[in-house]
Amino acid sequence: MPLVGSEPNVVLIHCHDLGRRIGCYDRDVDTPALESLADDGAVFENHFVTAPQCSPSRSSIHTGEFPHVNGLMGLAHGRWEIDDRFATLPAALAEREYETYLFGLQHAATDPQSLGFEHVFPGGARTSPVSPTDHAVNRARDVARAFRSFLDNDPPTEPFFASLGFFEAHRVRLDDRYGFDDDNYEMADPAGVEALPYLPDRERIRRDLAEMEGMIEAIDEAVDAVLDALDAADLADDTLVVFTTEHGIAFPRAKGCCYDPGIEAALLLRYPGEIDGGERYDELVSNVDLFPTILEMADGTVLDEVSGQSFLPLFTDQEHYQRELVFAEMTWHDRYNPIRAVRTERYKYIRSFWHLPDVYMTDDILMSEAGRAVREEFQSNPRPYAELYDLEADPYERDNLAEDDQYRHVRDELERRLVAWMRRTEDPLLSGPIPPADYDEIVPW
Length: 445
Fold this sequence. Notes:
Keywords: Hydrolase. The protein is α/β, with parallel strands linked by helices. It folds into two domains: 9-315, Alkaline Phosphatase, subunit A, CATH 3.40.720; 326-428, Arylsulfatase, C-terminal domain. It has helices spanning 32-40, 54-63, 67-70, 89-95, 132-135, 140-153, 203-232, 260-263, 290-299, 363-366, 369-379, 408-424, 439-442; strands spanning 9-15, 42-48, 99-104, 119-120, 160-165, 172-174, 177-179, 239-245, 267-270, 279-286, 326-332, 336-343, 347-352, 386-390. The strands form three sheets. It has an eight-stranded mixed beta sheet, sandwiched between helices. Strands 11-12-13-14 form a four-stranded antiparallel beta sheet, with helices on one face. The longest helix has 30 residues, at 203-232. The termini are far apart.
């Protein structure tokens, strides 16, 4: 088991709003570089995130903790921040004598150096680009180009951690709507895109998906450029490459929701000679698990004090204690949306704690073509406070079984597990509504 404490360089490639909409997850999308990365490494089939939104989910990667534990319960540019009691991934690796670099976005803090990055390349300070002018410096192609230039001109001599954050596939404001096409990406043919099985197959939704494919192509090309840069610098064999995203795609019933399309995320790992290529793992994995996994791989440290658990034993001859369940949550985004959820291999239980429409849509989805196509039907009825789904029989979570007597024992058990987790982690939601981060400013009197 040489992987433990092997001190690899670590390159973490992450993007916005991608979910698993890439070819190696059996989606009908052309992503040859990511499929090659999957062939050379490991694919996690059941990787889920802690929050169906950007900053809180990213905080879990950085700390190994749930958002309500580390404090980042809303967007970083909305005054939420990680409590300084928690070590972040770049800070923890810096303590282990890694050089730490940020290329592109991070969106877990307003100041990237507060996360522990020692070197921040242009664009890294931007946290939430939503317009063409704001996100220009964080385009995947430019981030990949900056990383290549760094390796060509100033290659590190010590083990290094490089975070490469791509803006794509975040929506941007386009006149009277939010979309993906800002003249920098090639739109696919709407008639030829793969429809979303959890949404009606409508022209406006297909157009949005066709626009998104241009951004996915840009992500794939940038991944190819990053891998080429590692090869050219003769670093590929000594580098753990991790590719992931923070939550599901920016469409209704995905981003902003705790249904599977909202909390599913790609996770690919490559480390030549240490992680067998072409392996696919179906174990439940949460993105809180990345923090302890990477640290154990770096210097052999086994972290028992964080919520995440290392999945490194899957690559070695150590015993792996498989997760029975994963948890997800949401508290604040562009409005209050308190949700807590628990998922097993077969069942999902979701508990809502506020009066909201049946399907919550973030502003960028609400003002999109896809959002407008379903807005009336998704926003006319109140959301039930309890939802239970049999994912084996109902993978698209349409049939709520929470009030079905035949499933009462399942609901009771998952509700018990959810409440026990909330109590164990001292979830502030148990004490009542959670005020916004700027509460003292908006209610000074």
